[in-house]
Specification:
This protein has helices spanning 30-36, 39-46, 96-101, and strands at residues 7-14, 17-24, 59-65, 70-76. By secondary structure, the chain is α+β, with helices and mostly antiparallel strands.
C-alpha cells in the first residue's frame, strides 16, 4: 500500500531546508505511520534527490504532532542551496510531498 492511501502531505521551504508534513486522513492510522516513517526510511526513499550528498551528511529531524495526527520532517540540504542558488527544477521543493506520498508501506 502507498502512503497516499492513508495520508496527505504539505511542504514548505526556507533556504536550503525543506519540511514535509504527512497528515493521516484517519486518526487510527497515526501510530502506524509513526512506525513506518522513521527518518532513516524517509532518507532511503528520498536518496535519489541528492546523489552528490553522502547519506552521512543528511540531517532529517522528525517531529511528531499527535493532536494533529501528523508528522513533520525537516530536511536540511535537500534544496541544493535554496531557490536563488539551485539549478534544480523544483527549487522550492513542492514536489517533495508527491514523492513522499509514493512511499510503499509494509503490511500491518
Amino acid at each position: 500500500m502507498k502512503l497516499h492511501q492513508l495520508a496527505h502531505s504539505r511542504t514548505g521551504d526556507k533556504g536550503d531546508t525543506s519540511n514535509i508534513s504527512v497528515i493521516a486522513y484517519d486518526a487510527q492510522d497515526y501510530d502506524y505511520l509513526c512506525q513506518q516513517l522513521s527518518p532513516e526510511r524517509v532518507q532511503a526513499h528520498l536518496q535519489g534527490l541528492m546523489p552528490e550528498v553522502p547519506p552521512a551528511e543528511w540531517r532529517i529531524t522528525r517531529y511528531e504532532l499527535p493532536q494533529l495526527q501528523a508528522l513533520n520532517f525537516v530536511i536540511s540540504g535537500v534544496l541544493r542551496g535554496g531557490v536563488t542558488r539551485s539549478t534544480a527544477l523544483d527549487a522550492h521543493g513542492k514536489s517533495l510531498s508527491s514523492l513522499m506520498l509514493d512511499l510503499e508501506l509494509t503490511e500491518r
